[in-house]
Amino acid sequence: MLSFEHPVAGRVKLPGEDVLDGAPEWRIYLAALGHPAVVGADEIARVIPESPLSVVDDFIDLGLVGPDDEPWSLRGDEMENLYLRARLAPESLDRDDAHRLGWTELERRHAFLEGDDLVDGDDSYSLLAAFWRGDTDIRLRSAIPAERRPMFDEIMLGSQTGHWPQHITKDRGLWALLAALWTPADLINAKASEFHAWRALYNSYRWMLMGWLDKAKAQVQRLTIAAAHKSEDGRPFLPDSMRTEIHNMAAYLAQDTNDLKLGIRLLDAVKDFHPTVAENLRRLRDRRSQLVNKRDHWENPYLMLGVPHGDPDWESQWRDLRKQLDGDVDRLTLINAAKRRLQQAERTEADFYVLPLDEEALQMPLKRSSLLLPPVEPLTRRTPPSGATEIAALRDAAAQTIISDFLSAPIP
Question: What pTM does this model have?
């Protein structure tokens, strides 16, 4: 075998199976050429650090090195480490890793999952990004892997009625998609699923920013029922964070009718789940201690202007509303009062009811689910097959062991 410069399996026939036995260097050399020599992972690991990258790729292609062997940890070059991970453990690479490798497919996959619009292409990721915006392209279903199409059909069917199987609604990465595809004709049954409760909470908050308080109250009433609901195993139907937001919103709206006793009871039930609840609870108790005609207007002035609590650009919104509400005396009176309260708060310490407790909890989830995507495929090999030059070090090591064995053998 050593008389041939590059005796690759399929080109050179072994003289016999006994040739496959021998020292590790000899067996590694044969295995690297594709011959069925038995080598252990620990034996190959010894040659990976110094072997040309193409030889390591050969080991991968021959099935001699796999992800459990983590060959990238044995290489000193950072880009080679990244490349070998891409070949064997592509799911471990993030978006920056994909960019450094120039791996466009994986980079776009990460961009989609992170919520990018992806309006600059015509691939499956662009079609799916448009789907998440509520646009359904007729090409989309065929672009989805066949094994994922039943889920796609379930999503589309459910969007007609607002009812989906639990395995769909429990995936938060699908919530923005479901919300984009489904426009409720009436108030939402918040007990249908955690997604429905979130959507109802999201709608209520948006309505409050728009000044539609009666509509928000009706939906929040259903939300408080869902917040008190128990699953079959006796546990709360909704997570503590969502129940706390619901109670906080319901307590805020209770001020409109001066039902402060109810508001205090609602907040007291969730005061241990978020630090800001205690502050809102104090505000309601202080308000209850005041005479009715001594109380300031109950609404948070930021929300009255249609902006999130603490928004530094509230004055721009006030100016825009002044133009939009020209002639609506009642609304203009309210927003002007909100402006005065915010200006006063700039001079003194503001003490407004905080809603929501966490802005992100009521925002549309940005990150998308991978359930409609195919599994991440390993990066295609980028090195050419090894030749005699690349395999030379393994050949020399094998030859050295044979010469050493020959020289140490006893003379008959």
Answer: 0.83
- Average pLDDT of 244-269? 97
8 A C-beta contact, residue 172 and residue 199 = no
pLDDT tens digits for range 143-189: 999 999 999 999 999 999 999 999 999 999 999 999 999 999 899 99
Q: What is d(CA 350, CA 300) in angstroms, rounded to the nearest whole number? A: 10
Instruction: Return the residue matching tokens 């471990």.
Output: 92
SS (H, E, C) the chain: CCCCCCCCECCECCCCHHHHCCCHHHHHHHHHCCCCCCCCHHHHHCCCCCCCHHHHHHHHHCCCCCHHHCHHHHCCCHHHHHHHHHHHCHHHCCHHHHHHHCCHHHHHHHHHHCCCCCCCCCCHHHHHHHHHCCCCCCCHHHHCCHHHHHHHHHHHHHCCCCCCCHHHHCCHHHHHHHHHHCCCCCCCCCCCCHHHHHHHHHHHHHHHHCCCHHHHHHHHHHHHHHHHCECCCCCECCCHHHHHHHHHHHHHHHHHHCCHHHHHHHHHCCCCCCHHHHHHHHHHHHHHCCCHHHCCCCCCHHHHCCCCCCCCCHHHHHHHHHHHCCCCHHHHHHHHHHHHHHHHHHHCCCCCCCCCCCHHHHCCCCCCCCCCCCCCCCCCCCCCCCCHHHHHHHHHHHHHHHHHHHHHCCCC
